[in-house]
Design brief:
The protein has helices at 3-101, 104-120, 133-139, 143-150, 184-190, 192-203, and strands at residues 127-130, 156-158, 168-173, 179-183. With 216 residues, the chain is an alpha+beta fold.
């Protein structure tokens, strides 16, 4: 084989080797590219998952906030409606007392009972009873018998000065040192919390949740 033939064979071998190396480098480059793309896709998927998770958490927080705000608003509405219902019942109770005061057959025995209850709270001595103008006219002419039936064991005088109230009595000792307010308004004020509690329990017994309405 002459030199030219050897040269050609060598060149062919070198070219073939160069092609193989080029193919190997190209395959390796493709592998690296695929690996980079896969890793980048994985990073993108992870970032997307984190972003989706963060978005879900933000949406969940917003949902919980809105639910809590809605529940609070509903609770406030229910409490306001309950309070209004209890106040309405209290107003009807006051109206019922005023209506009772218009019926002498029902009212006068109650008036005597209120005098009797007040007298028990005052230790001794003469008692002074004050009533409103309407009741003053009702009992003035019959006072001795009326008072004796109410408090037979004590001396009880009727004041000529009428007081402002819708009904009931105000009783004090002769020196005005001890006073008992048994007017309708006085009794309602003293019993306000207890009455509201009872009304609340009666109105909302079916729900089992009367609420905390008696504290104002």
């Amino acid at each position: 084989m002459n030199d030219q033939s050897l040269t050609n064979d060598l060149e062919a071998a070198l070219l073939e080797r160069a092609h193989k190396l080029a193919d190997e480098h190209l395959a390796h480059a493709h592998s690296i590219r695929d690996q980079i793309i896969e890793e980048e896709n994985a990073r993108l998927r992870l970032r997307e998952e984190r972003e989706v998770l963060a978005a879900k958490e933000a949406a969940e927080r917003l949902y919980r906030q809105r639910v809590q705000a809605s529940e609070l608003h509903l609770r406030e509405q229910l409490e306001r409606q309950r309070w209004e219902m209890i106040e309405s019942a209290m107003a009807r109770l006051a109206e019922r007392l005023q209506a009772m005061a218009g019926d002498e057959d029902e009212y006068l025995p109650e008036l005597q009972a209120m005098i009797r209850d007040a007298a028990r709270c005052i230790p001794s001595g003469e008692l002074i009873v004050q009533v409103n103008a309407q009741d003053l006219e009702r009992v003035r002419s019959r006072w001795e018998d009326f008072a004796r039936e109410a408090v037979p064991e004590k001396a009880v005088s009727l004041s000529d000065a009428a007081i402002q109230c819708s009904g009931g009595v105000r009783v004090c000792d002769k020196d005005n040192q001890v006073r008992v307010d048994n007017t309708f308004e006085g009794r309602l004020e003293r019993m306000s919390d207890s009455l509201r509690q009872v009304i609340s329990e009666q109105l909302f017994a079916a729900t089992g949740d009367p609420g905390d309405m008696h504290g104002g």
